[in-house]
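TICKET #2291
ISSUE: user wants both folds in one file
ATTACHMENT 1:
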Amino acid sequence: MRGIVPGLASAAPVAQQLPAVYQEDDFLQRFVVAFDEALAPIFATLDGLDAYVDPALAPPDFLLWLAEWVGIEVDESWSDERRREIIAGAAALHRRRGTLAGVAAAVRLSIGGQVEVTDTGGSVWSAATGGDLPGTARSHLTVRVVVPDAGAVDRRRAEAVVSGVKPAHVPHTLEIVEASHADLS
C-alpha cells in the first residue's frame, strides 16, 4: 500500500517553492513541512512511474493490476517471478493468439512442459468450385502437453488457457501426459 513514508524526503519541498518573503516566516516553514510529508510518496511514485509498468520492476502488489491491464488472469499459485514472466510475454502472446504457435506458447508459459499443437486442417472453403476440402472437413485442435507430473497440472486451468487463446469456433482436445508415459505412446 502506498501512503506516507516516514523520513522520505520530498523531491520538490514546498517551502522552497514559496516566494522569498514567505521563506523567512518560521511558522509557515514548519506548516508546509506537512505537505512535504504527504507529497513525497506521490513525487517518488511519479518519478519511478516507468517501473510500475515494467513487469520486471513493478512492486509485487502492483502485478495483479498490471496483469489485468494486459489481459492475463493470474493464477494464485504462481510466484511473483512467474507472474512477471507471464505478464512480460503477454504482448507477444496476444500477437500470435489463435495460431498454432500462439496456443503452444500460451500453454507452455502457463503450464510448462513440452507442448505440441496440431489441427486437422479442415476449412470451409476450397480454391476450386466443388473441390475437396483439405484435411478433414471438420476443424479440430489437439493440444498435447508432456510434463514430469501430470497430477500436478490443474486441468481446469489448462482448459481455460487453451479455450482463451484458440479460435472460438474450433473445438479442442487437451492431452496431459507424464514424460515417462509419453515415451511409450
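ATTACHMENT 2:
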Amino acid sequence: MKKALVSLALCLAALSGSSFATPGEVPEGGTLRQMPMQGLTAGSKLLGDYRGKPLIINVWASYCPPCLAEMGSLERLSKRYGKQFNVIGISIDDYPERAMAFLTQAKTSFPHFIDHKLALENMLGANRIPLTVLVDADGKVVQKVFGAKEWDSPETVEAIGKAFGLRM
C-alpha cells in the first residue's frame, strides 16, 4: 500500500510538472551517503563501491514506458564510454520478477539493483521517473535529469563530458 501511494505521487508529480523534495534527498552539490544496494542483475553492493570513477545512476520502474524508451541509449553510452564512467540502474519496483521482465525487454548489460525500501529512491530524489543522476568520482551529485533522454546523442555525450570534466 505504501509503495502504491508513492507510485501515485510519482505519477501525479510527473503530470503536474511539480517538484518536491523526497525524505532524506541529497541535492545537487551534495554527497551521496553510503547505502547498501540489493543486486538484481549483479551481486549486492554498497553505493560507495562506485567511488573513484564518475557514475551515472538511472532510476526506473517496469511500469514506466519512458524508462524503457531510454534504456537502449543508456546501454550504448555504457558500452562506448564505460572505461571513463560507470552506469548503473536502480529499479523502484516492488516485485523483482517485474523488474527482471523489464530488463529482459531492455537488453542491458550494465548492473541493476532494486530498491524495495525506498531508501535509494528518496536519497536520489526520484519524485518523478525516469531520473538519471550524474555523480562525480567523490560521490558528489553533479546533476539530476528528469525524463527520458537520448543518452548517447552527441549533445548529451558532450554535456556528460563537461559535467564530469572528461574528454569524450
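RESOLUTION: both attachments delivered.
EXTRA DETAIL ON ATTACHMENT 2: The domain at 2-15+26-164 is CATH 3.40.30.10 (Glutaredoxin).
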